[in-house]
Design a protein that fits this description.
Largest sheet: 5 strands, mixed
Shape: globular
CATH architecture of the largest domain: Roll
Strand order of the largest sheet: 2-1-5-3-4
Helix content: 25-40%
Number of domains: 2
Number of strands: 5
Structural class: alpha+beta
CATH superfamily of the largest domain: Beta-grasp domain
Order of helices and strands: EEHEEEHHHH
Radius of gyration: 16 Å
CATH topology of the largest domain: Ubiquitin-like (UB roll)
């Protein structure tokens, strides 16, 4: 097809290095889900309004539906699949289960990745700080109180190392 410009890029996703050729119009979301198989990254709105596609790029939360893959060439990316280690869930994932922080689960990966970025920057957030961090994430079920509780619980557990 005429007019398609492709570019070779490299990414490190969840600690694994990838080299691939991408169409310059492809989003990071498309590459992660369709080319690399990281289906924990969700397509919600495609307009940066819901947060379901949130991943961490070079330590910062990013909406992968608004980010072109070529923009993150050479970057380190963390998806929800990369949080668990050796079959053990991350404390954030455990806290979401224990506190019923998910209902349908669609928003959960984005919520968890946003929370991970928050806790990496602020390991002891207030409830207000958690709510502010989640402002770009939408839960269709309206489960916000339990999501906030899950994140605050995870922060406590991470702080005490359990």
């Amino acid at each position: 097809m005429k007019g398609i410009i492709k570019k070779a890029i490299s990414l490190t996703v969840n600690g694994k290095f990838y080299e691939l050729e991408v169409d310059c119009r492809w989003t990071l979301l498309k590459v992660l889900r369709e080319k690399l198989g990281f289906t924990g990254v969700k397509y919600g709105c495609g307009a940066g309004e819901c947060g379901a596609c949130t991943v961490i790029v070079d330590g910062k939360p990013v909406l992968s539906c608004l980010t072109l893959a070529i923009e993150v060439d050479g970057s380190e990316i963390l998806t929800v699949e990369g949080l668990s280690k050796g079959g053990d869930l991350h404390l954030l994932q455990e806290a979401f289960i224990e506190n019923h922080g998910m209902q349908c689960g669609f928003c959960t990966p984005g919520m968890i990745m946003t929370a991970k970025a928050l806790l990496d920057e602020n390991p002891d957030p207030t409830e207000a700080a958690v709510k502010e961090a989640l402002v770009g994430n939408i839960c269709r079920c309206g489960n916000y109180p339990r999501i906030v509780k899950s994140i605050l619980d995870a922060a406590k557990k991470i702080k005490r190392g359990s």
